[in-house]
Design a protein that fits this description.
The protein is α+β, with helices and mostly antiparallel strands and 308 residues long. It folds into two domains: 166 residues, Beta-lactamase, CATH 3.40.710; 127 residues, Beta-lactamase. The chain has 13 helices and seven strands. Strand 6 and strand 7 form a beta hairpin. It is globular. The mean pLDDT is 92.
């Protein structure tokens, strides 16, 4: 395992120069794009790391997985998907074209419009402090905090998401005000995590919502099933289909450079690589996952799974 991770990361580092950090959020734009780290957390509680796996960065859109899971737990299936769809959008994560011209509802909860709608649901149900506490449980990381600098940087450059939120409000989709919905959404995006945090969360999802260390159930089985399915179909923005074919592992990316991946019943994988492609996905992180999938036969349709 250690040799596989080392080789994948060292090869991936050669690709970091090809991308860019998320400069539209100034604080993220200052990140060193040469960072690259991976962590694999296996069912027996072992953490395998290489590179910058313990470097803190903001979770960004990976928080949409947490918000969706909590919405399903607290609001139920019908209310959660009453005004948010479950289909891939085919558009960039911050697009509002289809929402404005062809649909009354966001395509899915993994794009910004859907996530803002989910945040509006949750703002009446749970506090940010409760969400933070639950995120720490899901990630098995008590050190997760709100990155105030990124939060204020993002709130100061939020014109596009504000436009999306007002469009949602005009269609009667928001349950709270634009301001409250966006504040909740951006706070969740601004949580400081590591690749190891994401690997821990991935293992909880791979373990059917049960914390393998304590045996405590954190999420219902039906919630985990829905979340993993939407991660597979929508989690890598408008690159989700190609990624599913090549890697075949439910995953969710964020413009902070993180990728969360779930190998059912086997492991969780967390990656940090802030050099992004044009779709907003980590360039080197995708390479690492392609290598891991091929070497360890992680694709959900692979046969003859090896032992490690």
């Amino acid at each position: 395992m250690d040799k596989i991770l080392e080789k994948a990361v060292e090869e991936g580092k050669k690709m970091t120069a090809l991308g860019r950090t998320a400069t539209y959020i100034p604080e993220l734009g200052r990140m060193d794009k040469s960072y690259l780290g991976v962590c694999v957390c296996t069912g027996d509680g072992q953490y395998y790391k290489y590179g910058d796996a313990d470097e803190r960065f903001t979770i960004q859109s990976i928080s949409k997985v947490i918000s969706l899971a909590v919405a399903l737990e607290r609001c139920g299936f019908e209310r959660t998907f009453d005004r948010v769809g479950m289909e891939p959008s085919g558009d960039s994560f911050d697009s509002l074209v289809k929402l404005d011209l062809t649909s009354d509802y966001p395509s899915n909860p993994m794009i910004n419009s859907g996530a803002i709608a989910i945040a509006s649901h949750l703002a009446s149900e749970v506090s940010f402090e409760q969400m933070l506490k639950f995120t720490r449980l899901l990630c098995m990381d008590d050190e997760i905090t709100l990155n105030e600098r990124v939060y204020h940087s993002e709130m100061g450059h939020i014109s596009r998401n504000k436009a999306i939120a007002y469009l949602l409000e005009s269609k009667g989709i928001l349950e709270n005000s634009v301001e409250e919905s966006l504040k909740f959404y951006v706070r969740m995006c601004s949580l400081n995590v590591t690749a190891a945090s994401l690997a821990g969360f991935g293992l909880v999802l791979a373990s059917d919502g049960v914390d393998p260390a304590t045996g405590k159930r954190l999420l219902h089985s039906w919630v985990v099933q829905i979340v993993k399915t939407i991660m597979l179909t929508c989690g890598m923005y408008d690159g989700s289909g190609k990624f599913a074919v090549e890697v075949g592992v439910p995953s969710k990316s964020g413009v902070g450079g993180g990728i969360l991946s779930v190998v059912d019943k086997r492991m969780g994988i967390g990656i940090f690589g802030p050099s992004l492609d044009e779709k907003g996905n980590s360039i080197a992180g995708q390479h690492v996952l392609r290598e891991l999938s091929a070497k360890m036969k992680l694709h959900m349709f692979a046969d003859n799974v090896p032992e490690f």
